[in-house]
Design brief:
With 831 residues, the protein is an alpha+beta fold.
């Protein structure tokens, strides 16, 4: 690993990565309030090609990389902490398109960098050592001069309006609190060890030695304003736009401190540029990711005080909720993207109290963690930085639903788990699942061996020797069972008139048309509605005098901008109409003189396919020429006539992995439960998750794992081998992360466990082994004997546990006894 360049060694205030002994690392984690009870938060997940993804919106002026943040345009009320910029949404979708191609055996998708379409590439395998810039920020006592940020939070969760400074978190009483991690001094060396020893080791292990991090941690810097400016939930969600200002303000103070210490601006800028060697979004479209792009590659900020996600009792809802986002405070950044010009103070909630010394190096993507975060939250949030979504139901952050991903993965409650000691939880995360390893390219071939996964197909018999999920061994770490495409009826909304309408269809790399010849006239009107990927995909109206040469026609709905070079005529139609899909809008246009034919054309790029473009009641000079009730002489090439519903196909697969009590998965022995909220709210008991074959259902028709919105369905959810629902003595359901403990298939009976609710014990008895998964059977239930989902007594509902699988006639069987930590022999076969 490398540290600060030698020319700067010894006098930079940012400390180089150094080798340190593993310290007494701790996290504050409270059970007092029902915060972050299932994981750590996300807006939208990764979605395979063909699924619909929505990007964050804003009323501010748009740029290539999306809008610049304003106070009024804060993110809509959300329960997520993985907030994705438009360019992140696009990159995630490109990755899913390429991965589906890879699993389907397409040769062009087997490399480290895949060309998905012209000028659109995605890097599928994260390898090497990335440099990470970490800044430590504490808060002043100034209250920002806006009524929103004056005084304590109105919900009464805190009364303190000062700071906090570092090292002000109270020491927990270990006689009643074994969940809060704490240490007396959160100094610079603590975070050097956290990032560049402990987090580095975690990712080295997950990647089987392919990937690691090094970099630098700054000294603590102090911004002038209190945490209320940056953490207050004024927007109605758990993360608001003003949090981004902490990145700007802390870096402005740091730059100013460097100048005050005698550094020149040239030295500061050159140093910052050592953290820019990766073109995250391939800004120049050349498919080369190993080049600078003008932005810090991996920017992390640690703030003084606790985490709102952990129910911080000191700052309450003024505490910042740890998250990943994009600091779009200033326009005009590299490649036309917004961001923060390091050292400056411009943008949302700016102040002359913050220094202003522009470096010309920018920050865009960032993650933010609390002072007392454990290893779990640091590696989890960094997982977002690498492109992983949250896999838990994000509504659970604010008292909503919970799914069964639970402690099975880092990107759910596996980030919060502990070792079972008195020192707290959150510092011993579990492994990534096989699905996440695939996302990061860490199951791909390595050193002439691999790939470290195998592909089975529904309807075909195959046998597989499955090694532990990490690290890579001579055997496969995962088996992906590719299923027939899932067919889903999609709601297209009402027609404008009659029973039919014209539809472009939906998908990637489309160039569909509907053409009408024999046109006479110049005034065109139509009813249209559309849901088109903003600034990337377009619908066009085109005219021809000879039926062979086509001229783009400007319409009342055309966009004159072309931020991504997909609208060179500046006549394209993009975005989403108000009230879609129920409502229609008017389109008008003047056709060129001499027009004898017209067409609508729909063109999409390689990823993020939204619903598409619809037309009805098309007229020229007042004469209806297109109602879609019959073909009416229209030549449809990709466009179709449709009613209010249609069918769409989606990739789906089962994912098989072998989970044993080894490596970071040793923590599966010590899953936790807050069982004494009536008497000791910060006390946890532990119980084991069952080792064995864990099967997941990967369903690209779903954008996330929010089972509260779509019970039994999600992007990637574990299949419960023992789906019988367990209840507490009062008739309420146990939460899904308890129900999920025995999800594995195998040849051994499950462990019996005893857990508590408000100090009342309940025992889940040992259950017989389930060696075979058969997807024609039921592994998920919408209701139990008491009530259906939505009507069951208590918070947790039957349909939130497990996942509903398709009936494809596929079986997966564990063959023979397997010792702890050993291999599993499995057979995939048609029933």
């Amino acid at each position: 690993m490398t540290g600060v360049p030698p020319v700067c060694a010894g006098h930079w205030a940012v400390a180089a990565q150094v080798s340190l002994r593993k310290g007494d690392v701790v996290i504050r984690r409270s059970g007092r309030v029902g915060r972050r009870v299932v994981g750590l938060g996300a807006v939208g997940g990764l979605v395979l090609a063909g699924a619909v993804v929505s990007a964050p919106t804003s009323t501010a002026a748009s740029s290539k990389g999306g809008p610049v943040a304003t106070l009024e345009s804060s993110a809509p009320a959300n329960s997520s902490d993985n907030l994705r910029s438009p360019q992140t949404v696009k990159k995630d979708a490109l990755r899913q398109t390429a991965l589906s191609q890879r699993l389907n055996g397409e040769p062009a998708a087997q490399g480290k960098v895949v060309k998905v379409a012209k000028g659109q590439y995605v890097d599928l395998e994260r390898e090497g050592t990335d440099r990470v810039f970490v800044i430590l920020a504490e808060f002043g006592d100034q209250q920002y001069p806006n009524a929103i940020f004056q005084g304590p939070p109105k919900d009464g969760t805190a009364t303190d309006v000062t700071g906090p400074l570092r090292n002000e978190i109270p020491q927990p009483d270990r006689s009643v609190d074994n969940s809060t991690l704490w240490k007396a001094d959160y100094n610079q060396a603590h975070y050097q060890d956290m990032y560049f020893t402990r987090m580095a080791k975690y990712y080295q292990t997950q990647s089987s030695g392919r990937y690691s991090v090094d970099g630098a941690v700054t000294e603590w810097v102090k911004v002038p304003f209190n945490e209320a400016l940056y953490g207050r939930n004024y927007c109605g969600g758990i993360v608001c736009n003003t949090t981004k200002a902490l990145i700007r303000d802390a870096m402005a103070v740091w730059v100013n401190n460097q100048l005050a210490s005698g550094k020149s601006m040239a030295e500061i800028t050159d140093y910052l540029k050592t953290f820019d060697v990766y073109d995250r979004y391939d800004i120049d479209g050349d498919g080369v990711f190993t080049e600078p792009d003008g932005f810090i590659d991996h920017f992390q900020i640690v703030h003084a005080g606790g985490d709102e996600a952990a129910g911080d009792p000191n700052q309450g809802t003024d505490a910042i909720w740890s998250h990943r986002w994009y600091a779009n405070l200033q326009g005009g950044g590299p490649g036309g993207l917004p961001g923060v010009n390091i050292g400056t103070n411009a943008g949302l909630v700016s102040s002359s109290l913050v220094p202003n010394n522009a470096t010309g190096v920018w920050v865009g993507d960032y993650t933010i963690q609390p002072e007392n975060g454990g290893l779990g939250v640091f590696v989890h949030e960094y997982g977002h930085d690498l492109g992983l979504p949250d896999l838990y139901d994000t509504s659970g952050n604010t008292g909503g639903a919970e799914n069964s991903t639970a402690f099975w993965t880092l990107m759910s409650s596996g980030a919060n788990i502990g070792t079972g000691s008195l020192d707290g939880i959150g510092d011993a995360p579990t492994d990534l699942s096989a699905w996440e390893l695939l996302q990061l390219g860490w199951l791909a071939p390595q050193g002439g061996k691999g790939p470290f996964y195998e592909v089975a197909r529904a309807g075909q018999k195959s046998t597989h020797k499955l090694g532990p999920n990490t690290p890579a061994t001579k055997s496969a770490q995962a088996v992906f069972v590719v299923l027939p495409d899932k067919k889903v009826n999609i709601d297209l909304g009402a027609t404008a008139a009659g029973s039919q309408m014209f539809w472009s269809t939906s998908g990637d790399n489309l160039n569909t048309t509907m053409t009408k010849s024999g046109i006479s006239g110049t005034s065109l009107t139509a009813k249209v509605k559309y849901d088109i990927e903003e600034d990337w995909d377009y619908a066009f109206l085109e005219a021809s005098a000879d039926g062979a040469t086509w001229t783009p026609v400007n319409t009342s709905l055309s966009r004159a901008t072309d931020p991504n070079s997909n609208n060179p005529s500046h006549t394209g139609i993009t975005g989403t109409t108000s009230g879609f899909p129920a409502s229609w809008v008017d389109l008008t246009a003047t056709l060129p003189a001499g027009t004898t034919a017209l067409r609508f054309r729909y063109q999409t790029d390689a990823a993020v396919s939204q619903t598409g473009f619809f037309a009805d009641q098309i007229a020229v000079n007042g004469t209806i020429v297109g109602t879609a009730e019959t073909d009416e002489g229209w030549a449809l090439n990709g466009f179709v006539r449709t009613g209010s519903t249609n069918e769409k196909s989606y990739f789906n697969a089962y994912v098989a992995e072998n989970r044993q009590y080894d490596g970071y998965d040793a923590s599966l022995r010590t899953a936790y439960n807050f069982g004494f909220l009536d008497s000791r709210p910060d006390w946890v008991e532990t119980y084991p998750y069952q080792n064995g074959l864990l099967l997941w259902y990967w369903d690209s028709s779903q954008a996330d794992n929010n089972v509260g919105d779509h019970p039994g369905q999600g992007l990637v959810l574990p299949i419960d081998a023992h789906p019988t629902l367990s209840h507490w003595a009062d008739g309420q359901l146990m939460r899904p992360r308890l129900q999920s403990y025995d999800s594995t298939f195998g040849v051994e009976a499950t462990d019996a466990i005893t857990v508590h609710k408000d100090s009342v014990a309940s025992t889940i008895a040992s259950a017989p082994a389930v060696p075979t998964f058969d997807d024609t059977k039921n592994w998920w239930f919408l209701a139990d004997s008491h009530a259906t989902t939505g009507a069951h007594v208590g918070r947790y509902q039957p349909g939130w546990v497990g996942v509903q699988v398709p009936k494809t006639g596929t079986t997966v069987t564990v063959n023979g006894a397997v010792s702890n930590g050993g291999h599993l022999n499995i057979t995939v076969a048609p029933k």
